[in-house]
Amino acid sequence: MRFASIIKVALRALRRNTMRSILTALGIIIGVGAVIAMVSIGNGAKAQVEAQVASLGQNVVSVFSGSVSSGGSRGGWGSAPTLTVEDAEAIDREVPDIIGVSPEVRDRNQVLANGLNWNTSVNGVGPDFPDIRSWKIAEGTMFSEQDVRSVAKVAVIGKTVVDQLFANTDPLGQTLRIRNIPFKIVGVMETKGFNLFGSDQDDVVMVPYTSHMKRISRRTNINSIILQAANPEVIERAQKEITEVLTQRRKGREADFTVRTQIELAQSATATTQTMTMLLAAIASVSLIVGGIGIMNIMLVSVTERTREIGIRLAIGAHGRDVLMQFLIEAIILSSLGGVLGILLGVGSAQLVSHLNGWPVVVSTSSIVVAFVFSAAVGMFFGFYPARKAAQLDPIEALRYE
Amino acid sequence: MPPVVQIEDIHKIYESGEVPVHAVRGVSLEIQKGDFVALMGASGSGKSTLMNLLGCLDRPTRGSYRLDGIDVSRLDRNALADIRNQKLGFVFQGFNLLARTTALENVELPMLYGARRFTSKEIRTRALHCLDIVGLSNRSDHFPSQLSGGQQQRVAIARALVNEPQVLLADEPTGNLDTRTSAEVMGVFQKLNDDGITIVMVTHELDIAHFCKRNLILRDGVVVRDDPVTDRSFSASALSKISEAEAVAKLISAKG
């Protein structure tokens, strides 16, 4: 039978009982909608994480102290600090692909100014820090190499500290006391917001690392080193070279450091969201299967109802295959239409959830295509058995059916 | 010219139940082109089974059946479907039209199956032509629910004709129709037969059988009589007799 005729017959049969067709397709609609919504929300979460990681700077390589056994994102953050400033200087000297270095020392301290006090992160960093982190100074300047050498008592503060201690005044030039030592504020960082883990990145005071180690924390080792590679192509090479330099310096002692590129950080950060997304999608797919069973059920009923009609077609000269195609196409059209409506429903709900919760949403074209193909496949798979039953009817028996 | 239907000693035995049923027990017959056969017999005589065999809806257990020179006794399911599509036309007691489908689309149906490929224009033209033959071209866009019993049966006849079959097979075509309409429908069959179409009709009413040319009577699976019809009825005169009878009946009820 000609294909156009089959489509026409199938559409007519579905229209014959519109309510029933809609209810049957509902399983597919909900299934596809759920999958699309889940995947879109999951992709949005992933994109947000990736954006966060990207906001940590360009081509950043991080060296953490303490070793990590597997690719955890938190392992190595100062569990046993054994990195030194000399390590950072060695890397700076010996790795040509590195264009910026900043040792990092982290601490929390009570800071005082203007008769107010505030508990905040007090970090020791190098002058390259704003460039490496793509985090610019909004007012004033970053401290210089000279300040590092002279262990100067200068500080650069974040917006939250400004709001807490210098609400209506200009903080530049004013004094901030850290551990009762006066530091002069020379710069204010631009606003950065909250990070992946929910910490306020603007709640920070930064001083030269030498000043931090000598005057504030009184220590000889550092928490981490952040470095900037020249461009994305050399990041991996830089990672290897850094590892070599540090290993050599440890002269056979156990490697007590980790070198992570920004890409690796992004991957480990998004790994969780990706797993969650896949899990949610898998669960949502279950409803697709249920929808398919619904289609099979209704097609079986439809075949029984139309036994006489099938008998007429067979008597007039239809081959078994013609009847099979007729019912199979009907099932496929039903499930595909359900798929299209499901996609619309899924995209709509994802947008709604995004709007209500402030979560980002990313609807990928590939997920839409896969969902559509899958819904058609469900129709084909679950429609086959009823279609085959129809095709195998005996015309004489079928014509006699009441 | 060879006969259109040549059946030699065919048997049909059903093995489905506990006891095998020997429905047709050695029937041999020939039907020439242009013949008009009434197949009669009581229930259980095997006439339905014989019709199914003639219609290539079933295969004989033994014996041979040559339709238009082709041996169809041993063909497979799909080949039989093609034979039905090309060489046979079916008219049923219950009309068996597709509901919610127009008269024209019903008549077009056989052309959508089968090996021959027609253009949409050809399909429409041929269907309209057949509707014209049965006098219903002005109702081509009506649904069966909008047609009377007689009109539905005429649509069914048009459908049976559309692929220019060798034999028209009718199974109690007037069974669901009143006397007047039956006479009208038999008129259509007679006109088709006059134009050369071979018709085999199952009926249990003698009145209807008298419209045909040949009477075949089956009993217990064998042919017991095969005679030409004498004092044949003709549709036109039958209809005028019915009108007279109706008029008389009206007068009587008016008087009384």
Summary tags:
heterodimer, A: 402 residues, alpha+beta, B: 256 residues, alpha/beta, Rossmann fold, 6-stranded mixed beta sheet, 8 helices, 38% helix
The CATH topology of chain B is Rossmann fold
* Tally of individual domains of chain B: 1
Helix content of chain A: 55-70%
Which ranges of chain A are low-confidence, i.e. pLDDT below 50, for 5 or more consecutive residues? 75-79
* Structural domains of chain A: how many: 2
Q: Could you state the CATH homologous superfamily of chain B? A: P-loop containing nucleotide triphosphate hydrolases
What percentage of the residues of chain B does DSSP assign to strands (E)?
15-25%
State the strand order across the main sheet of chain B. Answer: 6-7-8-3-9-10
Largest interface: A-B, 21 and 25 residues
Number of extended strands of chain B: 10
Oligomer: heterodimer
Principal-axis shape of chain A: elongated
Strands in their spatial order, largest beta sheet of chain A: 2-3-8-5-7-6
DSSP summary: helix tally of chain B: 8
CATH architecture of chain B: 3-Layer(aba) Sandwich
Structure description:
- The complex is a heterodimer of chains A (402) and B (256).
- Chain A is of the alpha+beta class and 402 residues long.
- Chain A folds into two domains: 3-51 and 268-400, no CATH class; 81-255, no CATH class.
- Helix content of chain A is 56%, strand content 17%.
- Chain A has helices at 3-16, 18-54, 85-94, 129-132, 145-149, 159-165, 209-216, 235-250, 262-305, 307-316, 320-357, 365-391, 395-400; strands spanning 60-65, 98-113, 116-125, 137-140, 154-157, 175-178, 181-189, 204-208, 224-229, 257-261.
- Chain A has a six-stranded mixed barrel with strand order 2-3-8-5-7-6.
- In chain A, a hairpin with a 2-residue loop joins strand 6 (175-178) and strand 7.
- In chain A, helix 1 packs across helix 11, helix 2 (18-54) packs antiparallel against helix 9 (262-305) and helix 11 (320-357) runs antiparallel to helix 12.
- The longest helix of chain A is centred in the C-terminal third of the chain and has 44 residues, at 262-305.
- With 256 residues, chain B is an alpha/beta fold.
- Chain B has one domain: Rossmann fold (3-Layer(aba) Sandwich).
- Chain B is built from eight helices and ten strands.
- Chain B has helices at residues 47-54, 77-87, 103-112, 120-133, 149-161, 179-194, 206-209, 235-255; strands at 5-14, 21-31, 36-41, 62-67, 70-71, 88-91, 167-171, 198-202, 214-219, 222-228.
- Chain B has a six-stranded mixed sheet, sandwiched between helices. In chain B, strands 2-1-4-5 form a four-stranded antiparallel sheet, with helices on one face.
- In chain B, strand 9 and strand 10 form a beta hairpin.
- The longest helix of chain B is centred in the C-terminal third of the chain and has 21 residues, at 235-255.
- Chain B is globular, with a radius of gyration of 19 Å.
- The mean pLDDT of chain B is 92.
- Chain A binds chain B through residues 1-2, 5, 12, 16, 308-309, 311-320, 322, 395-396, 399, and chain B through 52, 55, 57-58, 77-78, 81-82, 84-86, 90, 92, 96, 98, 100-101, 109-110, 112-114, 117, 159, 163.
